[in-house]
């Protein structure tokens, strides 16, 4: 009996330690999963952000990353795909999130470069800075 109680206690502790990351589904259908909570400023759509990122297709194939371009990317948040404009606003500086972008919130039916038309995309985004 003591071993069953110990096993249940260990299981409860383990399930707490491995609890799922906070996830939010946005009205557009994009999903933001917080991988690391930030403690800094949270951007608005009109801000310029600096990020490290990695983008993959639904099959896991990487199509782009900031490291391929020599380091962090900086851009106005309202000049990127809707999934990013909405999703990055949910991250605080120092945080990292996974954005799951339905095709309609990414590049839609047009596709771009290595991204085929109507592709759902996933990005890991680390927010490094916000400039008002």
TrEMBL record:
This is Peptidyl-prolyl cis-trans isomerase. GO terms for molecular function: peptidyl-prolyl cis-trans isomerase activity. It comes from the Bacteria. Residues 1-19 form the signal peptide. The lineage of its organism: Bacteria, Pseudomonadati, Pseudomonadota, Betaproteobacteria, Burkholderiales. It catalyses: [protein]-peptidylproline (omega=180) = [protein]-peptidylproline (omega=0). PANTHER family: 39 KDA FK506-BINDING NUCLEAR PROTEIN (PTHR43811:SF19), FKBP-TYPE PEPTIDYL-PROLYL CIS-TRANS ISOMERASE FKPA (PTHR43811). Its EC number is 5.2.1.8. Residues 46-131 form the PPIase FKBP-type domain. PPIases accelerate the folding of proteins. It is an enzyme of class 5 (isomerase). Keywords: Isomerase, Rotamase, Signal. Belongs to the FKBP-type PPIase family. It comes from Caballeronia fortuita.
């Amino acid at each position: 009996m003591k071993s069953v109680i110990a096993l249940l206690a260990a299981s409860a502790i383990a399930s707490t330690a491995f609890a799922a990351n906070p996830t939010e589904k946005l009205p557009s259908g994009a999903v933001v999963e917080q991988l690391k909570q930030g403690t800094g400023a949270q951007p608005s759509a009109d801000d310029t952000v600096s990020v490290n990122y990695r983008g993959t297709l639904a099959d896991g194939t990487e199509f782009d990353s900031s490291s391929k371009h020599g380091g962090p990317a900086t851009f106005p948040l309202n000049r990127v795909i809707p999934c990013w404009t909405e999703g990055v606003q949910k991250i605080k500086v120092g945080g990292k999130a996974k954005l799951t972008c339905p095709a309609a919130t990414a590049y839609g039916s047009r596709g771009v470069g290595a991204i085929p038309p109507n592709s759902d995309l996933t990005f890991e985004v680390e927010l490094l800075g916000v400039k008002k």
